[in-house]
Design a protein that fits this description.
Blueprint lengths: L1 E10 L2 E10 L14 H18 L1
Antiparallel strand pairs: 1-2
Length: 56
């Protein structure tokens, strides 16, 4: 489905938060990993934001 990475980028005294979403497919989709359209990204984002909301 996807992997979510987050962190802080620091440069010249400034700190910028970032979020990177890497779409990956199932092992059965090796020829076209992550090539399933916008719905996968939407599901990854909703799952991530739900975790953020419930942990606060």
């Amino acid at each position: 489905m996807g992997k979510v990475y987050s962190g802080l980028y620091k440069c010249a005294g400034h700190v910028v938060p970032y979020l990177v979403i890497v779409k990956v497919g199932k092992p059965t989709e090796r020829s076209r990993p992550g090539n399933r359209g916008k719905r996968d990204l939407q599901m990854v984002m909703m799952h991530f934001l739900n975790k953020v909301r419930l942990c606060m």
